[in-house]
Every structure is written in structure tokens, then in C-alpha cells.
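Input:
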Amino acid sequence: MTARPWLKIVAVLVGLFLTVPTLVVIPMSFSSAKTFRFPPGGWSLEWYERLFTSPEWTTAIVNSLQVGVITAVLATVLGTAAAIGVTTLGERAKGLAVGFLLSPIIIPNILIALVIFTTFLRIGLTGSLFGIALAHTALALPFVVIAVTARLQGMDPALRKAGGSLGAPPFAVFRKITLPLAMPGVLSGAVLAFISSFDEVVISLFLQSPTAITLPVQMFNSVTVQIDPTISAASSLMVLVVSVPILLAQVVGARRGSRGK
Amino acid sequence: MAADTAAPPKRTLSPSGRRRVGGLLLLLPALVALTLFFVLPLLSIIVDSVTDPEPGLGNYASLFTDGYTLRVLGRTLLVALVVTVAGVLLAYPYAYMMTLAGPSVRAVMVTVVLVPFWTSMLARNFAWMVLMQDGGVVQGVFGLVGLGDVTLLGTTTAVTISMTQVLLPFMVLPMFSVMQQIDRRLTLAGQSLGASRFSSFRKVYFPLSLPGVAAGASLVFVLALGFYVTPALLGSPQSSMIAQVISVRTRDLLDFGGGGAMGVFMLVVTLAVLAASRRLTGPGGAAGAAHAIVGGNER
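Output:
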């Protein structure tokens, strides 16, 4: 069935609405003005220089990388184990466990921030990067569980049974059969966990301290507390860092898809 | 669960029994972590909301009697509703077009949705801030169509427009994942039986696509309800939404009872909306939406 012209036009407009406004950050990042004026009056690399040399920005970047890596490691280990563990449960228990594991994805972040902040305040975990990473782990867990589960669902259960019937103990079956087969899902879960932490604002805002400021918090403060156009350089980089892998994955996927036909 | 596994005190377990214990052991750390960093804190805030500063339902009563809080609640619900409706209207034709497009066009369309989804929330909101400032591009466009110099930054309008865009991917992906599974021959059958193109769409295709609409709409509504960054950057204290008030109450005033009551209210609305959408989409509606979002990468 062919699409009507008006449908195509609407789809193009929606596509533009989704992508074009964000691109504004790229010309902004080369502006020479100390304000957020757009279009910029002159051009410079000042904001990129500041992003990579001024201590407040470099510290924030390093902090975010640290938190992101800790989160990715914790969430990947916990999430992969849980996704594999879930497969051994009965239908009802499975539904409950999966629902519970995925719940952080549908609970508004502000609510998670609120509850974690009040608890961490009591146990003295606010203002530490590790505290932020722990909170991000809860948030990132669903991404890993989903990615690994999707991978396991496509796996032939006979493989595991075969391993067991040939005398392999459960742990060897897990290590030699289940885990290698689930690996692509584990890796994509780890990447998603890292990105979700690297980009998280609300919880990091609640848990921040002068020594525990992540990049999104620094960006947030650079528009709310001071007017610091370095945020446009940071934004451009983040857009780039996220878009390129997705574009590549889609191009590769489309090639593979068209070759298969 | 623990009792269940500890119950048979035999020294040797059957292979399937061992597998079950192994499975539970694998599952346990994640459950413990979520309980520690999510469930227990949530319970403690519920307790706070009825005990701090004094035992009783005072915090909840003031939620619905204090004029300021009521206005914030009303504004938040209204913005979330407008964002959801606008999102459905924009996302439906886009997702529908995705199902009609060929593989390469579809890959482009998926990318157009996924890139913003994974792009820094702050970058996207900052871009809107630049566009909507006084003398900015959006104001210029409004001027062209004869609306004059309307101030946008700091208004609820600005917040609503940006939130619609920021949340749109959450709407498109669940819709697409449902529409993809609809058998197109059904509408053709409708047409061959004499229905017009429009009425076969309306009577056959549209009802079948509703679970996707419900999943997307409920997800966006719930997320919009608790949105913090957009109203904080593009709104003003006069156009506060509930998330900002929660932040001020807990972070600045350390009023855990008051902030907690607002949080609990938000949680109840969230769960009610999700339960309602579950009825429409069947079990796994929200989970299905989540799968669509993460799995969209691999399509």
C-alpha cells in the first residue's frame, strides 16, 4: 500500500521537529559571544578550549566518566545475572520479578531522586560520586535486563540442556554456553547503562556537592546559576558522541537487512 | 522465596533443583540492590509523609487545600495532558509512515527517533532555551505569522512545546512496535468488502493500533508528570511544576514530609495511569514499551 502525500509531508515535518532544534547547539558552540545569542555574531573555539582546560569542566567530565563506568559495571553484572536467573523461574514468578526489575524505568526520576536523597542524607551517602553511581545503578538495571533478556529469548534452550546432559555442572553451562551466547546483549546493556548514567541529571543534582559534580550537573548550573556558553560545546560533543554510534549501527543494520533479501 | 529453596534438606538436589537454586542466586543480588536503593527509600518517604513534622495526614490535606500547591498540581496535570495529546497527534502519522516505508527509509526514520532519545536531555533543552529566548528564532517565526513579540522563555507554553519534542520518541517507539505487527491485509480485506479507504482504516486499523497508542500515551503522561529539567530551564518560578516544588521542598527546605506527600501523590497517579493502560494494552504494556525503546536499537 502506498502512502498518501500528506502523510509523507507530516512524517517529514515530525522528523524535522525531532532533530533540527537540537542541532542549534553546534553553531552555538563556535560562537565568539559570551551570551546565548543565536545566530552567533562571530566565530571562535573559545568554548571548546574552556571545556577541555578549565578545571570545573574537566573535573565534571572525569567525574561523569567515573560514575558512568562504575554504574555500567555494577548494572551489567547485576542485570545480566538477574536476566539469566529469571529464565529459571515459573511463569508467574517471572512476570513479578521482571516487573520489579523494570520498575525504575517507569517511575519518574524526580521520585527516585527524592527517595534516594532522603535516605542517602541519613546514611551519609550524599555528595559522593559512589553514592551517585549506586543510585544510577538502580536506574540502569532495566536497560541491562531488557537487552540481555532479548538476547536470551532468541537462544535455543536445548543448548543448555545438551551441556548439562553431557555432564557439565550448572556453573560450567553458565560460563561456557549461556554467557557467551548472551554476550552481545550484555555488551549493549553495558553501553546503555553507561549512557543512561552519563546523561542523568535529576538524581545527580540532588546528590551533588562541590566535590561531586557530574557533567550534566555542571551543564545545568552553567545555565541556571551562571551564563556560561561552554555548555554549547559540551552539548555538541554529547550530541556527536551519541549520534555517531547509532547512525553506524543503523547503517550496518540496513546493509545487512538489504543483503539478506 | 528463600524458604522455598531451603525447604528440602536433602544433600543432593536434582539437576533441575540445582538449576532453580542457581537461578535464584543469580537473581538475588539485583533484587537486593533494587530493594536497598529503591524500595526501602520509597517506604521511608511514605512513612515520612505521614509522620513529619507531626503524625497524621496533614501533609496530604495541605496538598489539596493550599492554593499554591493546588495551582502547581493543576498546571502539572494540564501540561502533561497537552504534551500527551500533542504527542499522540504527531507520533501517530510518523509511526504509521514507518510501517509503510521501505527498509532504508525506515532505518532513517528509526534513527531520527533514536538519536534524540539517547541524546543528552540537557543538550536538547538548552537548544530550546536558545531558540526561545527573547529575540530568538522561535519568536521571529511567531512574529512572521503575526503574533508579535510574545515572550516565550519562562512561560508554560515554552515548557509544553519543548516537553512535547523531548518526549516524542517515547511515544513513537511503542506505537511503531504495535503497528508493525498489524496484518495489513485486514484493511485491504475491509476495502475489498466495500469500505472506503478511510473507513477501513478507522474501523479496522485504528482499533488494532490502540494498544500502542495507550502504551505510548501512558508512558509520556507519566514521564511528563515528573519532568524536572525542562520546566527548570525553560519555565520560571511562576510556572513551576510539581517536580520543581518537590525539589525545593526537600533539597532546600528539608521538608521531607511535605515533599514526600507530593511524591507519594505522584506515585499513586503514575501507578493508576499505568494500571489503566495495562487494561488497554494487556499485560506487559509498559514493559513492551520499554522493550520497544531499548530493542529499537537492534531492529
